[in-house]
């Protein structure tokens, strides 16, 4: 910001100087030219009057040479006096015979012999005089008795004009130097609090705790001081809200789950004492209790996600997909559904720690619920090639994680609302919370990617998680097609895994056990 302000100040000062100094230089040059021309015309008229008097008294040959020599010495130029036929009467410098005969043919002398005074001025680009000659008639009347021709040297005038231009340039440079120091001080004074605000805002944006921005009565413009004070109040309020949310996430985890566990235990203890007519109601109560417990876990997981604004880092997505496939395959086999993994060489991706596992757990749980027996659920990794321009810019490419099933799928309207919190598809069975896909979308966005639902080629649902690749695109080379070059399917495992009640894999942590039920089959 300091550099931009400095450039703005200097540009404005340079524009003002150009608008002032260029007209001033031309005005001075014009004044010098007019002064020299006037002086030359006065000398020519003086010599003309003296020559007319000398011719009238018949003493031209005796008096004119001395007068012409004296005038030429005074002006430092040349003076020539001719009679009515153009013959030289007196000259301040020797003339050859050819030059003497050519005097009458000169335009200025010819006009003077016809009774008209002339001035011939040639100027330079910046207004300096390069050549000046003046011709004046001797005597009055239709036929003058002769003419006077003066040529004035212009080196001094030319040098004086150049000197003035040089002084103007040096003066402008001095003004720009002074403006530079003053503008730099003003820019630093203005930009320092803004830079502090930028630093604090950046710390706040990446999830840190921004320290208060120093606000004093003499630091920065009043508007910036007011902005800094408002930022400090906002940062303090945000820190208070984050602390309150952190305290809620920590305390609610115990305060909510413990009563729910106790309630479920009491309901299970009632089972021996319940008649057959009330057993269905008890089962429904246990189911709703489990659903409430999963909903609480989902809300707490989303609260922790919003609180912990961690920075995405490189994650081996292929290894994580293989690990989750190994964990979930026995459960899929138990339900009569095949789970297949196609993992190509996509390399690491950028994601929050633990987010890939949670995303896969939720998507696989939904796919298992929506898949009829003897169907296949596919986990596939594909490298999404960017455009040619992005490849030339060496920008990172993307990796798409697909989890597709062969279930009933969703309509376009249902896919548009599937990521809303607590939304469940019409006709879904009881037990779902509607939080799983919302958590998946939050995790994808927090990792710098996006989540979307599409219609699978098999007619079911294709959940696509696009994550930024941790490796730059190969510069200058486009990929032949979107997707991995070689698929390596993991063999289907038919043995039953060790699972806990309710269909949750016991190896997954609590934050991974939030499963959405917002598919039409649920």
Write a brief caption for the model.
With 522 residues, the protein is an alpha+beta fold. The chain is built from twelve helices and twelve strands. It has helices at residues 2-57, 60-75, 97-102, 107-113, 155-205, 222-269, 276-307, 317-334, 355-370, 388-392, 412-417, 436-446, and strands at residues 78-83, 88-91, 118-123, 129-138, 146-152, 313-315, 338-342, 349-351, 376-384, 396-404, 450-455, 461-472.
Would you kindly provide a written description of the structure presented here, covering whatever features stand out?
By secondary structure, the chain is an alpha+beta fold. The chain has helices at residues 2-57, 60-75, 97-102, 107-113, 155-205, 222-269, 276-307, 317-334, 355-370, 388-392, 412-417, 436-446, and strands at residues 78-83, 88-91, 118-123, 129-138, 146-152, 313-315, 338-342, 349-351, 376-384, 396-404, 450-455, 461-472. Strand 1 and strand 2 (88-91) form a beta hairpin. It is rod-shaped, with a radius of gyration of 49 Å. The model is unreliable at 389-394 and 475-522 (pLDDT under 50).
Q: What would the keywords be for this entry?
A:
rod-shaped, five-stranded antiparallel sheet, disordered C terminus, alpha+beta, 52% helix, 522 residues
Total number of helices: 12
Low-confidence stretches: 389-394, 475-522
Number of strands: 12
| N to C succession of SSEs | HHEEHHEEEHHHEHEEHEHEHHEE
Tell me what portion of residues adopts beta-strand conformation: 15-25%
> Nearest-angstrom radius of gyration?
49 Å
- What is the quaternary state of this protein? single chain
Shape: rod-shaped
What's the mean pLDDT score? Answer: 75
Q: Helical amount among residues, as a percent range? A: 40-55%
Note the gap between the termini: 56 Å
State the strand order across the main sheet.
2-1-5-4-3
SSE class: alpha+beta
For the largest beta-sheet, the strand count, sense and barrel status come to: 5 strands, antiparallel
């Amino acid at each position: 910001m300091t550099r931009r302000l400095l450039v703005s100040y200097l540009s404005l000062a340079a524009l003002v100087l150009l608008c002032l100094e260029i007209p001033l230089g031309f005005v001075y040059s014009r004044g010098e030219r007019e002064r020299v021309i006037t002086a030359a015309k006065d000398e020519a008229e003086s010599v003309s009057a003296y020559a007319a008097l000398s011719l009238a008294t018949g003493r031209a040959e005796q008096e004119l040479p001395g007068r012409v020599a004296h005038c030429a010495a005074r002006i430092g130029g040349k003076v020539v006096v001719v009679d009515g036929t153009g013959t030289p009467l007196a000259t301040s410098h020797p003339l050859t015979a050819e030059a003497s005969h050519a005097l009458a043919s000169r335009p200025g002398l010819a006009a003077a012999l016809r009774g008209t005074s002339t001035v011939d001025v040639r100027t330079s680009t910046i207004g300096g005089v390069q050549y000046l000659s003046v011709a004046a008639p001797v005597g009055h009347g239709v036929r003058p008795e002769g003419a006077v021709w003066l040529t004035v040297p212009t080196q001094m005038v030319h040098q004086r004009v150049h000197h003035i231009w040089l002084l103007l340039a040096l003066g402008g440079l001095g003004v720009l130097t002074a403006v530079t120091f003053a503008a730099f001080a003003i820019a630093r004074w203005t930009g320092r609090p803004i830079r502090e605000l930028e630093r604090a805002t950046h710390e706040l944006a990446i999830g840190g705790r921004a320290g208060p921005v120093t606000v004093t009565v003499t630091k920065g413009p009043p508007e910036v001081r007011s902005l800094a004070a408002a930022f400090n109040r906002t940062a303090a309020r945000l820190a208070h809200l984050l602390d309150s949310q952190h305290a809620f996430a920590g305390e609610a985890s115990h305060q909510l789950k413990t009563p729910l566990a106790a309630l479920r235990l009491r309901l299970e203890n009632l089972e021996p004492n319940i008649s057959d007519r009330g057993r269905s109601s008890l089962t429904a109560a246990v189911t709703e209790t489990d659903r409430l417990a999963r909903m609480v876990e989902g809300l707490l997981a989303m609260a922790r996600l919003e609180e912990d604004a961690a920075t995405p880092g490189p994650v081996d997505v292929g290894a994580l997909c293989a690990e989750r496939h190994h964990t979930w395959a026995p459960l899929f086999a138990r339900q009569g559904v095949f789970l297949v993994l196609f993992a190509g060489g996509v390399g690491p991706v950028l994601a929050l720690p633990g987010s890939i596992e949670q995303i896969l757990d939720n998507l696989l749980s939904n796919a298992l619920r929506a898949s009829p027996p003897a169907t296949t659920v596919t986990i596939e990794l594909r490298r999404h090639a960017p455009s040619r321009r992005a490849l030339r810019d060496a920008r990172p490419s993307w990796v798409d994680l697909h989890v597709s099933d062969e279930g009933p799928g969703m309509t376009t309207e249902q896919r548009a609302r599937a990521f809303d919190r607590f939304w469940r598809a019409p006709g879904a069975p009881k037990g779902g919370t509607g939080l799983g896909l919302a958590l998946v979308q939050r995790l994808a966005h927090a990792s710098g990617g996006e989540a979307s639902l599409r219609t699978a080629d098999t007619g079911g649902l294709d959940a696509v998680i696009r994550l930024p690749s941790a490796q730059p695109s190969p510069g200058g080379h486009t990929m032949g097609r979107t997707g991995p070059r070689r698929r390596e399917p993991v063999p289907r495992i038919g043995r039953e895994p060790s699972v806990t009640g309710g269909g949750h894999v016991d190896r997954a942590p609590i934050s991974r056990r939030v499963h959405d039920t917002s598919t039409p089959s649920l």
